[in-house]
Amino acid sequence: TEALLQVKNLKKYFPIKKGILQQTVGHVKAVDNVSFTVNKGETIGIVGESGCGKSTTGKTILRLLEPTDGEIIYKNENLASLSASKLKEYRKEMQIVFQDPFSSLNPRYRIGRILERPMEIHNLYTKKERKQKVAEILQKCGMDPSAVNKFPHEFSGGQRQRIGIARALTLNPNLLILDEPVSALDVSIQSQIINLLEDLQDEMDLTYLFISHDLSVVRHISDRILVMYLGQMFEMSETMALFKEPLHPYTRALLSAIPVHNPTEKRERIVLKGDLPSPSNPPGGCVFHTRCPSAMDICKQVKPDWKQAKDGHFVACHLY
Ligand code: SF4
Ligand code: MG
């Protein structure tokens, strides 16, 4: 296995400003010391509730948000410290697909123009070649090439997401960051889009970072899964191992909420007490201790280290 992307100790803090003078009184640690490696051709799922930092992690990797600290190593370059002009070269290779393609597809432009635009910006191909490329990619994404003459509002949510994916593919990327790509879609359409993503991955040698609040959505497509909570990494392992034997109490609670079809997999529903703490004022020690059914005295005082509990299965919890 060959590493495509290495995220090392990534941090993204947002200042909290107060009063008329807008003085910085603290920070929201939206991404707090996140490290993982994405191998070529792999799909990593990043899962957690809203506000856990998963989207911010994705956007910071692409430097759509500036990292506060840490490294983003891609092809032996640290993207975190690249100049804007050098970054542009790498931008082509990493694209993002958003949850709501409607808000990211300009309603006043026809699909053809929307899809040709990224190639224009990067000075790729002749006009004729760009049109050809668009037709090809639309077809790969299960759309009729005649879509180029229509406007975004003329398509259903699922079709718009196919167009959003097509746009991300026009630059021949290596890595796609899929930020809740199916969360706005009906369940039946969700599986169509996930199947499409899997086909495209094989056909175009793509590597995915698949961000979702829904463990059952990432289960099918991910090779490995990272569970996040309040900006921190709680658990990471191969998908099968995570579902078979979740280690972190938070992961167990998330898993227990998924309806199971297989009766031998029956789990007891774990309902977490309390609400998600405010990210601007997270609990000390283990940030999960206020809601954890297994919390011990040490959990209030000491933040657990990230450790390997089993082969390839990592967790941050004092139980291990
Ligand atoms: Fe629960 Fe303690 Fe583990 Fe945190 S460290 S998840 S509070 S048992
Ligand atoms: Mg795969």
From TrEMBL:
Residues 5-255 form the ABC transporter domain. This is Dipeptide ABC transporter ATP-binding protein. GO terms for biological process: peptide transport; transmembrane transport. Keywords: ATP-binding, Nucleotide-binding, Transport. It comes from the Bacteria. Pfam families: ABC_tran, oligo_HPY. Belongs to the ABC transporter superfamily. NCBIfam families: oligo_HPY, PRK11308.1. GO terms for molecular function: ATP binding; ATP hydrolysis activity.
